[in-house]
Amino acid sequence: MEKSNSLKDLKNLLQSKVATNNPQPITNISLTRLVSNEPKPVNRLPTASSKADKTISSESQSPLADESKAKLQKTLRDQEQKIAVLEGQLTASDRDKKKLTIDLEQLNQKLRTAEREIALSIQKAQDLRQQRDEWRSEHNHIQGKIEAQARYAHDALSKLRHLEIKNAEYQLKLDKSDQKITTLKEEIADYVALTEQTTAFSIDHLAVLEWLTADSHFRELNLESPYIAVIGERPFSKREFDVWLRKKGFKPVNGGDSRASLLLLGRSANEFDIEGHLMEKIGEEIRVFSQELIIASLITCSDPFSRSKAFQNKTLKPFADGHPALSYLRELRLPWPSLEIAENFEFVYTYDDAVKETPLHAIGYRVGVTAGLSSLKRHELLKDVLNGVYDSHSDWDVESAEYMATWGQPKTRRRLCRMAYHIAAQIANKKRRKNHEQAVEEWRNDLDWMRKNLYKKSFKFEWPSTRV
User: Fold this and answer.
1) Both ends of the chain: CA-CA distance in Å?
2) Which domains does the chain have, with CATH numbers?
3) pTM, whole model, 2 decimals?
């Protein structure tokens, strides 16, 4: 508004100059002062009425009045145009100022809002920082507990591992102790059994033996070879009896030695070792002594096997009574005391399967419609049983050690024979029962397959019939 008033004053000034024919131009300084609203000089311009009076008098007095007036009018128009432009610019500036004022107020409002939001954010940040510090403190506390528990768990685990190692060591010692106890029990049982068994002739004192055979020697028996295979011991130990045999001119060797045509069986002789030696002597005649029998032979200085059949049946057979190894020869249907291993010799075994479950069934051998295995799986399983794949399996040992011994060692004739006779017994038990036709047929097929694929000529045992 102040600038608008200044422009009006400038317009009046120009009009007064034109009226008074005052040639003095209006400088830019005057315009600047008016537009910028600067204080006016003390000597003010004449009023409009006085200017008009002077103009009338000057027009009549000066001949140049019209020319000057035209120039002043032109200058006035130019200035008016400039004033109009300035007024337009001033109006635009006022509008811009109002707009800027509104914008500024809006910005101030936004600024105040932003300041409030910033203050709230700062407060939230402080709250979050405080909460973070609390959480961090709690985290550190929990972390400390976790680390303490981890150390405790580590210590406990170390102690547990130490205890496990100790337990394993103690278990190993316990197993060894159990084995020793079992061995001792077996030895005690064998000793008790052997001491309870009596033969027709028994000497178990070494000094007595030395006295009775002081003048005896191998040569007096007229035997072809001094080599004698010794299997087992008792009543004398193997070591001391071997020493005694050497003194008498014999050459004791281990079982299975093909040089030995003489076989000496102690009461503890192992069935497998006996079978092994017999297999080495197929087609030969051998003479089987017990410790008691060879002592009697040296005392009498005679070979009992060279005597008559009547003498052997009457005098020698009582030596087998109560002697486990010689009794076992009888079970094999070998004609002891006259013993010749024929070329077509076969071992014959008898078994008692009066148990709740056999090893074959325990490890999964099945036939029949309900749960039977395929022939391929059955044959693979039977092959693995013969090779001892399941011997370390927990399900294999189903009964006492005595019963499991009848199943023999892996890859032996006794193992295969046991398997075959067990299956043959199943056929005999089930062949007349209804709804067992498929099971019986599969058992027969398995027996035939075992005979063709697992049986060896060296096994030398009588194969059970598949039509039992």
Assistant:
1) 139
2) 2-110 (no CATH), 206-340 (3.40.50), 359-459 (no CATH)
3) 0.43
